[in-house]
TrEMBL record:
One of its GO terms (biological process) is monocarboxylic acid metabolic process. CDD domains: SDR_c. Belongs to the short-chain dehydrogenases/reductases (SDR) family. It comes from the Bacteria. Pfam families: adh_short (PF00106). It comes from Burkholderia ubonensis. This is 3-hydroxybutyrate dehydrogenase.
């Protein structure tokens, strides 16, 4: 859904064979079917990015189906908002697992195919304005998005000799299902209206 879906659709329009990986197999299949109906080539893959075995088998399936992996878009993410003093350690670890561990595991699995014969490829991480700026209630998210910059920079140095490049895309405020979910949550926590969350926090405080 959201940015990930639109990236998949645009890559397909550009002629790429696209694999949509999602925890929700039905959701992945729906996007793949939309691409195929438009004349493109796509498959849906069930994947929990925090599970190394699931990531490895999913990536290998894509490589087997399409013959190679040229582009990895690391886009999995959720949002849990709370002030630091109330942020549970379980929620903190969940956020890091999906955003950072997931990026690491999918990268590692894809590199096996990109490094083969130095064929190369591109790894694109979905960062955020929060890769550079902070925002109240989002300690885990901001930390994770900063972490993607570090991972991408290391990959740029290590991957160069194998013709692999890395990038971090850092969009600002985008009205996706993930954002829509957190607007009422932040309004409740901060004691302000949802409109004020958008104007004063999401736009005024970060972008």
């Amino acid at each position: 859904s959201g940015i990930g879906k639109e990236i998949a659709l645009e890559l397909a329009k550009a002629g790429a064979a696209v694999a949509i990986a999602d925890l929700n197999q039905d959701g992945a299949n729906a996007v793949a079917e939309e691409i195929k109906q438009a004349g493109g080539k796509a498959i849906g893959v069930a994947m929990d990015v925090t599970n190394e075995d699931a990531v490895n088998s999913g990536i290998d399936k894509v490589a087997e189906t399409f013959g190679s992996i040229d582009i990895l878009v690391s886009n999995a993410g959720i949002q849990i908002v709370n002030p630091i003093e109330n942020y549970s350690f379980a929620d903190w670890k969940k956020m890091q697992a999906i955003h950072v561990d997931g990026a690491f595991l999918t990268t590692k699995a894809a590199l096996k195919h990109m490094y083969k014969d130095d064929r190369g490829g591109v790894v694109i991480y979905m960062g955020s304005v929060h890769s550079h700026e902070a925002s109240p209630l989002k300690s885990a998210y901001v930390t994770a998005k900063h972490g993607l910059l570090g991972l991408a920079r290391v990959l740029a140095k290590e991957g160069a000799k194998h013709n692999v490049r890395s990038h971090v895309v850092c969009p600002g405020f985008v009205r996706t299902p993930l954002v829509d979910k957190q607007i009422p949550e932040q309004a409740k926590e901060l004691g302000i209206s949802e409109d004020e969350v958008v104007k004063k926090v999401m736009l005024g405080n970060t972008v």
